[in-house]
Amino acid sequence: MIGRPDPFTGADPAAAAGVDPVRRAELARRLAVIEERIAAAARAAGRDPAGLTLIAVSKTYPAEDVVMLRTLGARQFAENREQEAGPKVTMVTRQLEQSRGDPTVGGGGGPGGAGVASGGTPGGSDLTWHFVGQLQRNKARSVLRWADWVQSVDRSGLVGVLSRLAVERGRPLSICLQVSLDLRSDFGRRVGSVVADSGRGGADPAELPALADLVDGAPGLTLRGVMAVAPRGEPARPAFERLRAVAERLVVDHPQATVISAGMSGDLEAAVAEGATHLRIGTALFGERPGVP
């Protein structure tokens, strides 16, 4: 997958785009390391690495980095701030169209290109874009100009707005329900103590069945599964074990909702061990982000 040329033209899109070869080599190295970590974690858990999807969290990094990772095989990207994401997606789409001429090149293999197919980002890009930040209703219209997925639906007030906008744009929106792992609960049955609020957001698991029913019945929305971030100040594995229990209960009533989006640069092995299907990797791919939450 690393450095694969365009399968239609045989050309290297990176060269056509005039990208920084030093930065591209760094990204290639980082991507290879992450892919090996994912593959090793999958093997340790008795899982097939091809069943895992790598999502590159490109927040704070420029469009050029996204384009370079695209030439290296990555197809799934995530942003958490609408004001940054909109212009970046536009720039990425424009650069890809200019560099390869044909904006319909298919996805690559391995964790970078495996998993859910592209949602068809406006402008013809073959990338899939995920919004993973806390979504405000007044920002929803801007987000839906570019997002194929919203992974952070954690309250009923968002559902109607997203449904209306998805229908209006004429393209379905994939939804993950963000689950809070701060409260150690089991669909309302307390099984442990309350841990400190991490500020990461998410619905209480007790509220998830009703929220899932609401999303599943909303026009223009497709319920894909759950998303969570491990709480600060406690080991990741037990938190992801709670998420797995939530996901298993959700899929009983919503068989299509098989996505478990969990695991980041520091805890992806724990997430894979507990059934994560989509891994959101930022720092390990792009580098440190000083002062950025």
TrEMBL record:
Keyword ATP-binding included in the entry's annotation: no
Keywords of this entry: Pyridoxal phosphate
Chain ranges of the Alanine racemase N-terminal domain: 33-290
PROSITE patterns linked: UPF0001
Modified residues annotated as N6-(pyridoxal phosphate)lysine in this record: 59
Family matches, as Pfam families: Ala_racemase_N
Full protein name: Pyridoxal phosphate homeostasis protein
Family note: Belongs to the pyridoxal phosphate-binding protein YggS/PROSC family.
Keyword Secreted set for record: no
Source domain of life: Bacteria
Biological role stated in the UniProt entry: Pyridoxal 5'-phosphate (PLP)-binding protein, which is involved in PLP homeostasis.
Molecular functions (GO terms): pyridoxal phosphate binding
